[in-house]
Write a structure and sequence with these properties.
The complex is a heterodimer of chains A (307) and B (223). Chain A is of the alpha/beta class. Chain A has twelve helices and eight strands. Chain A has helices spanning 6-12, 30-40, 61-70, 86-98, 128-141, 172-182, 195-207, 210-213, 226-235, 243-251, 257-274, 292-298; strands at 17-22, 46-49, 75-80, 103-107, 157-162, 186-191, 215-220, 278-283. Chain A starts with 5 loop residues before the first helix and ends in a 9-residue tail after the last helix. Chain B has two domains: 2-118, Response regulator (Rossmann fold), CATH 3.40.50.2300; 133-210, no CATH class. In chain B, strand 6 and strand 7 form a beta hairpin. The chains are: A alpha/beta (307), B alpha/beta (223).
């Protein structure tokens, strides 16, 4: 074991892992996080907290993760390189470790033009791959970016995102190889709807043996409605929603689309569990956390390991 | 070259509002090439200002001059003979030219008639695009001749991000994804496999804006 992470322990044991995420509130009320966490109790192994996702100002990921930790969860801190330079990033890494965080997901972050402060400046002093390198070097060599020694280095289980559906497809497998070379331990993928394309990507990963270096958690998001599916297809960059998905939700009939969406997600998790190289699922039930326990149960993924 | 575009007339009128006598100075350099601040644009802007002020019942006297360049003290000197007769200089050079005016003629307000946008070039008639951010440490030999700092919206050195879709950037369907361009180019050079998986190291930004205002001293050229 490289870290004290419960997620690492579960993945190393070969157990099919289940992670989920909580979007923190746009306010200072800790109760919102506690309530979201409550819904996930006993159903997941670790919970991501997003870092100002879609560039909308929210409670900080580290703070919300501490609240979840107090509830007994294993949090995954998300950190983007959009808002902080290497000084602030390293400072927050030290702080997160001091607060008992064991998992760190390295991201470049959505461009600020999508968010609620589109007139702001972005930073991008370093990128997500360089952040992986930074966290890895801190853990393995006990050094800052500048090469100086850290007295008590943070030891994170290092994550990243992977989007098998973005372009250019030709470099999607090499891109994971690059993240692996930088020192990533696990990746959570973009929401998968196009299973054929995902399978093709996974085959590329397995052919290169990358799944042995990096634990792949397949991302899923249940569709709530036909409208949501259409929106994701049309307006969310890097999202691949095949027409059959929309058709199936339509065919379910009025009032039944949400139920069908959940059912599809469960089927998907069952299929992913059998797929070579997939080490777990990452359920992003956007503002629909209450559905997670039911889906995990129906997918046959309960009980979750103790510990 | 440096690409700029004229500020809205309303904004310029507001700037010159306190004055009745101004010198409108164009530049025959980059901003003339991109049709924003050359001789022709000096004439157009002067007419527009005169007309608007006349309509307001407060006529304005405008001296129209276009200098060879405004980024060189030698040419700035050329207006010394008459500029003191005017209450303000409205420069439609880039921001460099405006500052040269301000530095040389300390008692006369220097007003910017353009917004200076970027270093770039012409793509087609009437279209200019950004190509370089002047980071002071060129990596084009490593990225197929396409600049990731400028052409990727996040300046990623190890791109593309997950928002690259159909060759376009997630922030605007009309902006090409810089990393798609880099990947395509490396592929056509037969370098993709060799180059793509090498991790680009942390960038030293001291040569960029982050290191403070920059200066180049060529001892071999100094007198």
């Amino acid at each position: 074991m490289k870290t004290a992470s419960r997620l690492e322990k579960i993945l190393e044991s070969g157990t099919f892992a289940v992670t989920s995420e909580c979007g923190p509130p746009r306010g200072a009320d800790p109760q919102v996080i506690r309530e979201k966490g409550e819904l996930l109790k006993g159903s997941v192994d670790a919970i991501n907290v997003t870092d100002n996702q879609t560039s909308v100002v929210r409670m900080s990921s580290i703070a919300a993760c501490v609240i979840l930790k107090e509830m007994g969860f294993e949090p995954i801190v998300q950190m983007t390189t959009r808002d902080r330079n290497r000084i602030a990033l390293q400072s927050d890494l030290l702080g997160a470790a001091a607060l008992g965080m064991n998992n760190l997901l390295c991201l470049s972050g959505d461009h600020q033009s999508f968010g609620d402060h589109p007139t702001s400046k972005n930073v991008y002093d370093i990128d997500s791959i360089q952040l992986i390198q930074t966290v890895h070097r801190m853990r393995e060599e006990g050094k800052f970016i500048n090469g100086e020694e850290i007295k008590t280095p943070p030891k994170f289980f290092i994550g990243a995102a992977a989007n098998p559906f973005a372009d250019p497809f030709a470099i999607r497998v090499p891109r994971l190889a690059k993240k692996a070379a930088a020192g990533v331990d696990f990746v959570q993928t973009q929401c998968i709807y196009n299973m054929d394309k995902f399978r093709e990507w996974m085959k590329g990963i397995v052919d290169r043996g990358l799944h042995e270096k990096v634990k792949i958690l397949a991302g899923v998001t249940p569709m709530k409605s036909v409208g949501m599916a259409r929106y994701m297809k049309k307006s969310v960059p890097g999202m691949d929603v095949p027409d059959e998905i929309i058709q199936r939700l339509k065919d379910a009939g009025k009032g039944n689309a949400a139920k069908e969406g959940v059912k599809m997600c469960v089927e998907q998790m069952q299929e992913l569990r059998e797929m070579e190289g997939v080490a777990g699922v990452h359920i992003m039930a956007i503002e629909w956390e209450e559905k997670v326990p039911e889906m995990v149960k129906d997918a046959g993924l309960l009980p979750r390991p103790e510990g | 070259m440096i690409i700029g575009h004229r500020k809205p007339l309303e904004e310029i009128l507001q700037m010159v509002e306190p004055f009745d006598k101004i010198a409108l100075i164009g530049c025959k350099g980059c901003v003339a090439v991109c049709a924003a601040g050359g001789e022709k644009e000096v004439g157009i802007l002067a007419s527009a200002l005169r007309l608007a002020r006349k309509k307001d019942g407060r006529e304005i006297e405008i001296k129209e001059v276009t200098l060879e360049r405004q980024c060189d003290p030698e040419y700035i000197e050329e207006i010394e003979g008459f500029v003191h007769d005017y209450q303000a200089v409205l420069s439609i050079a880039c921001g460099v030219g405006v500052q040269y005016m301000a530095e040389r003629y300390k008692e006369i307000p220097a007003l910017p008639g353009l917004n200076t946008d970027f270093m770039g070039g012409s793509e087609e008639q009437g279209v200019w695009v950004e190509k370089c951010q002047g980071c002071g440490n060129c990596v084009l030999h490593l990225t197929g001749g396409i600049c990731p700092i400028t052409r990727c919206s996040k300046s990623l050195l190890n791109g593309p991000c997950g928002g690259s879709s159909g060759g376009m950037c997630e922030i605007n369907p009309e902006i090409a994804c810089g990393w798609q361009l880099i990947v395509d180019r490396l592929e056509s050079l037969g370098l993709l496999e060799k180059v793509y998986e090498q991790i680009m190291p942390y960038k030293d930004w001291t040569t960029s804006r982050d290191g403070g205002p920059r200066k180049i001293v060529r001892e071999d050229m100094r007198e």
